[in-house]
Amino acid sequence: MPITPSCTSSVPEKDRPNPNEDAKHLNLRIAPRAIDLQGHRGMRAHWPENSLLGMEEAVVAGVSTLELDVVIRSDGQPILSHEPWLSHEICLDPHGIPVEEGNLSWNLFTMSVEALEACDCGSRGHARFPSQRPVPATKPTLDALFEVCTERAVSDARFGKVRFNIELKHRLEGEGIFHPEAQTFAQAVIDVVERHGMTDRVTVQSFSASALEAVHAARPSWSTAWLVDHAATVDAWMSQLSFIPTILSPEHVFLSESMVAEAHALGLTVVPWTFNEAPRMRELLAMGVDGLITDDPYLAMSVLESTDCTVFH
Q1: What is the mean pLDDT of the segment spanning 230-255?
Q2: 3-class SS letters over the chain
Q3: What digits encode the pLDDT tens for the residues 274-284?
Q4: Taking residues 307-312, what's their average pLDDT?
Q5: Fewer CB within 10 A of the terminal residue: the chain, N end or C end?
Q6: What is the pTM of this model?
Q7: Cβ-based neighbours of 248, under 8 Å, separated by 6 or more
Q8: What does the domain layout of the chain look like in residue ranges?
């Protein structure tokens, strides 16, 4: 059976009952299903990743959640970056020279703050995202992101509602080299979130069980997301943690409709990553996922408009 562009069912529309018709005698209308639309690294298809400009533009585009990565710089502050070093794909070093592939010497955990602030990770654009606009972009602190959203919320309510899905870029083998140990890493992020009063608007995600366990141990009531990037059963994925997180977030290629149902039965929200093709978005919606993580929120919005879904706010 072909997958239909529906958020709620894979049954052809002509064969589905119409609950709105059935509810007419009660003067009710069934609300469309709300989907958590997450802008991956802000809005990477159009603006530099993990940049303040990209985050702001994603909010204006209509996302419900900003998905972002954080590492720890030399002064202990969390900053937005996918790698704990300067990326050869997008960055210029402090001297304005493109970083060469394989060069990990520009370690964000050991570089001086001044040298890091002299780097530009936006002007080169991104070869894999030809629609991305090349504009200068430094690596902002998590503090700065929260400050911008708080300031803009005064005139634009969307900035006062948007959520934040913060990935801790922690790996056991990187401790003491590219970042601190898991508890220190987690606490650095917790401190910033609580200082800005963002606790109710934040989910902390990670591929690192150690990092997610550290967050849960320190703040057991916080929303957490378990990122997975390998094929397994839902039970096998969950066995790697000592607790049940709020969200299961697998790479989309490893997900099936039955797995979504299994995760829902465990009380998990399912938010897969990362895809930028409309047909795949429709397939995932038909599976029953609760959110979409994409580099192209504009495309996702157009897909949602063609279904019986809406963006969660």
Answers
A1: 98
A2: CCCCCCCCCCCCHHHCCCHHHHCHHHCCCCCCEEEEEEEECCCCCCCCCCCHHHHHHHHHHCCCEEEEEEEECCCCCEEECCCCECCCCCCECCCCCECCCCCCCCECCCCCHHHHHCCECCCCCCCCCCCCCCCCCCCCEHHHHHHHHHHHCCCCCHHHHCEEEEEECCCHHHECCCECCHHHHHHHHHHHHHHCCCHHHEEEEECCHHHHHHHHHHCCCCEEEEEECCCCCHHHHHCCCCCCCCEEEEEHHHCCHHHHHHHHHCCCEECCECCCCHHHHHHHHHHCCCEEEECCHHHHHHHHHCCCEEECC
A3: 999 999 999 99
A4: 94
A5: N
A6: 0.91
A7: 225, 226, 228, 234, 237, 238, 263, 268, 269, 270, 271
A8: 35-84+137-311
User: Contact at 8 Å (CB) between 52 and 135?
Assistant: no
Amino acid in position 101: E
Write down the pLDDT at residue 313. Answer: 84
